[in-house]
Amino acid sequence: MKLAFSTLGVPGLPVPEVLALAAAHGYDGVELRAHPEEPVHPGLSPARRAETAAQFAAAGVEVLAVAGYARVAAPGDDAPVLEEIRGLLRLAHDLGAGAVRVFPGADTALPPEESDAVAARRLGAAAEDAAALGVRILLETHDSHRTGADAIRVLGPVGHRQVGALWDVMHTWLGGEQPSQTCAALAPHLGYVQVKDIASAEDTTPLPLGAGVLPLAGCVAALAGAGWDGWLCWEYEKRWYEAAAPLPGLLGPGREYLDRLLSASA
């Protein structure tokens, strides 16, 4: 498995400095948070997109994915959601990224089957755009659809190879799902896995990998047992927890911890 980290852990850090961290600590790729407060976002000019892609290529670091904020199950018209997804797809294509992240974002007051149908319809509509650009749309296990069982209710009806899953290990754990269950549900659709650690269900402040309660060893073992050899991406949520320790000093030990898990599961 290859290792990456998310720029959510280094809010606003310029791309050259992000790449220097990846190179210094042995990470193969970076997940780029695509938000206007970040250096990389859908409003980026063609020239800046080309410059950013060239910087990654020169550093030998992959753009794993563009992490967007489109909510595919949210109430309302399809058109704005589809345009947001298509903007993310174009950005990912221009940067050489293989995927874009989207959220479910359903209104939990509505019947789940209604929200599932909305999400599947929108993802199905965007799938051909994704295919044309050579980018996958990955639905993260998050908010209204936090488990693999939740996500598969949407992905199954879509049934398109360009639409898959992003497994956030915190949310599936908070949803009461065992790693073996999540892996079984998502493995055929899995784009990559976001790893992280926290103190408890009540305190989700990010911790160094291995310092909390999340079943990271079980997740890696389940993936290895399924023959999956994709990406593990450390999503350290520094942007939402300003008091958390700075990520740069944790990247080296974090990679070493993941390397030990991978060796143990081999």
Q: Which blocks of ≥5 consecutive residues have pLDDT under 50? A: none
Structural class: alpha/beta
Number of helices: 9
Number of strands: 8
Topology as a string of helices (H) and strands (E)? EHEHEHEHEHEHHEHEH
Distance between the termini: 10 Å
Mean pLDDT: 98
Apparent shape? globular
Into which percent range does the helicity of residues fall? Answer: 40-55%
Largest beta-sheet characterization: 8 strands, parallel, barrel
Which range does the strand content fall in?
A: 15-25%
Which sequence of strands runs across the widest sheet? 1-2-3-4-5-6-7-8
Describe this structure in words.
Strands 1-2-3-4-5-6-7-8 form an 8-stranded parallel barrel, surrounded by 6 helices. It has 9 helices and 8 strands. Helix 3 packs parallel to helix 4 (112-133). It is globular, with a radius of gyration of 17 Å. It is of the alpha/beta class and 266 residues long. Strand 3 (62-71), helix 3 (78-95) and strand 4 form a beta-alpha-beta unit.
